[in-house]
Amino acid sequence: MSQLISVIIPVYNSQKTIIKSLESITNQLGSYNFEIIIINDGSTDASEDLINNFISENQSLLIKYYYKKNGGVSSSRNIGLKNAQGEFIAFLDSDDAWEESKIKTQLTIFAENSEVDFLATNMDGVNLNRFFFLKIKRLQKISPKLLLYKNFFKTPTVIFKSEIIKKVGYFNEDMNYAEDLEYFLRIISGYNCFLYNKSLVNSITGKYSYGESGLSAALWKIQLGEQKSIKKGLELKFINIFEFIFISSFSFLKYIRRFFITKMR
Fold first, then answer.
1. Rounded distance, CA 67 to CA 227, Å?
2. Based on CB atoms within 10 Å of each CB, which residue in 1, 142, 192, 199 is the most buried?
3. 83-137, pLDDT tens digit by residue?
4. Kindly report the CA angle at 122 between 117 and 127, in degrees rounded to 5?
5. pTM of this prediction?
6. Distance CA 179, CA 239 (A)
């Protein structure tokens, strides 16, 4: 029997996209055992009805559904992590969809590279060539310091060994902006984290990665969350105080750039 993969999907008012997200799991190439964990974070639209219909129409699938009072994406993902039984954990957002080769590609990489504990991919057609002076390889190991400059790990692309949860724990529920970066920094402090430099996930709505909708719209709050994550990097001794000042300044310049790009759209 193939390994169980727990897919954690937070949902908030996603009636226009949630079915496409779920179908992108069922449309994966190959035969896999999925445990789909859906956490409805207090939606007020028709999301719950659509989810219940999907569950009724797919009774052969292992689906766990939880409804909770609205409390943010961190608490939603933590419910998923605490109830996951799989050997691998994958995240998917309710407005994103996996390409059909995503899981096959990632599990092949795990099987062929025993040092890989955590694996992300690109999304929305992005393929990286360089980051500053670093040439990005097809399978690129990401260092803690590099992750502080740029979050290469887009949450809906990530899959990792579930044993990581026992040591790292859960998302910081006091954070709903850049909470993923803070969590990935804790993971990378003790595990080998890689980027597969190819796009295998797409936004269903075609939204920009920031400055348009959902959590990504609150640019300043994202900046504050990123700054908190950079401070976490200092606490974990990934960087010294001088590097902290430099990376914080670099982060603020990125915020300024995003602010003006958003205003010009």
1. 31
2. 142
3. 999 999 999 999 999 999 999 999 999 999 999 999 999 999 999 999 988 999 9
4. 125
5. 0.92
6. 19
Provide the 8-state DSSP code for 247.
H
CB 53 within 8 A of CB 128: no
The count of residues in the chain is 265
Q: Domain 4-207 maps to which CATH number in 3.30.70.580, 3.30.390.50, 3.90.180.10, 3.90.550.10?
A: 3.90.550.10
Structural domain spans, the chain: 4-207
> Which pair of tokens denotes residue 191?
């595990």
DSSP state of 234: H
Structure tokens at 57: 């129409």
For the segment 189-237, what is each residue's pLDDT rounded down to a tens digit? 999 999 999 999 999 987 655 444 544 567 888 899 999 999 999 999 9
Q: Which amino acid, one-letter code, is at 257?
A: R
